[in-house]
Automatic annotation (TrEMBL):
Its EC number is 3.5.2.5. It comes from Nocardioides currus. SUPFAM superfamilies: Composite domain of metallo-dependent hydrolases, Metallo-dependent hydrolases. Coiled coil: none annotated. InterPro entries: Allantoinase, Amidohydro-rel, DHOase/Allantoinase_Hydrolase, Metal-dep_hydrolase_composite, Metal_Hydrolase. It is an enzyme of class 3 (hydrolase). NCBIfam families: allantoinase. This is allantoinase. One of its GO terms (biological process) is purine nucleobase catabolic process. Residues 53-427 form the Amidohydrolase-related domain. GO terms for molecular function: allantoinase activity; cobalt ion binding; zinc ion binding.
Amino acid sequence: MAAEVLLRAGRAVVAGVERPASVRVRDGVVVEIGPVDAQADGAAEVVLADDEVLLPGLVDTHVHVNEPGRTEWEGFASATRAAAAGGVTTIVDMPLNSIPPTTTVAALEEKRTVARDQAWVDVGFWGGAVPGNTSDLAGLHDAGVFGFKCFLLDSGVEEFPHLTAPDFATAMAETARLDALMIVHAEDGAEIAECVHGAAYDGFLASRPDVAEQRAIDLVLDTARATGGRAHVVHLSAAAAVPALRAARRDGVDVSVETCPHYLTFEADGIPDGATELKCCPPIRGGANRDALWRALTDGDIDLVVTDHSPCTADLKRADTGDFADAWGGIASLQLGLPAVWTGARERGIPLTDVVRWMAEAPARRVGAVGKGRIEVGAAADLCVFAPDETWVVDPARLHHKNPVSAYAGRTLTGTVRSTWLRGRPVDLSAEPRGRLLRRGDIS
């Protein structure tokens, strides 16, 4: 492709506004944003179709790639191909489910070595905070992780143990010293009951009540106040926790919160018996809760939407028995996040500009992914060409995720990603991968 490209879009999301625009790209960077009829001046021209909108590439900061160690669940090649197919140009990989987990600099380097030549989009990494590794956090921070992930209850994998309240306070005092972001799986194990074996979703839901999230989030907020640390609550499911988060921020606590496409799409009463593809932790709750999450997003109480892409092999979902107690908890949706959220937003009269803010701008800003998540002069020319009116039916066999298991199977979604651009060039899944491995603060 020519060294300079001019994209012309009758609709583009620029600076939070949808408008006609031309976007000039040189050496992988946006160098000019002008009127749609700007002079090409020798640049190669790309004209979007009338039904397409030019968006910034999405930034998904909650992705479980699982390589090395559990590559049969998902690997960097399959995950980043799925990301590109879904309009995502940057992912940040979670530190658990891989073996070894990313809790030391050596483990981080092992993961980077594995990922280096098989990333179709850019990849950053979270470090992990587990009992006994407080002394490792500074080294990981210096090595460029985007922050640290911890659990306040059993993570589900033995090599990534959870932090007790005292452990959490110790770890967060260190992340505060480093000015690093601590991201927290916030459920209180003391409030969680053993899940009754069986195919009824109600039994699983009852085992993980709203109060488990509320109590754990209270602990996060209290610890952030005490340490002055920066905190982020991952995959908020219980809308009942929003008032406490709102009050803490009003008091000056540096805390942000995300939710996920599945919590905005599904509701408990619509989950049939045995539908273990919809098991995740924390769980999908009722319809009124889903509506409250949407209100919290539009009101600004929830900052961002990311997928919590958490795949596994098909057998671990226990489709043969439909037993929610035995099934792995996690939903694979990296390729589907944008159309899933846009489908729900459109039904509620929410503009595409809001979806872009939640899924591109806000994640990039919160984790310090410099130059990502926006169409702006000086930013990386990471772009998504999106057809917001096109409907389609999800066929798991046609997704790029490694295992053809999807909570969205057979569901009609609105909005299709027509192409994804990384640093000013379309991502070609039949060519060699050219994604980069990012360190916190990289400008690319």
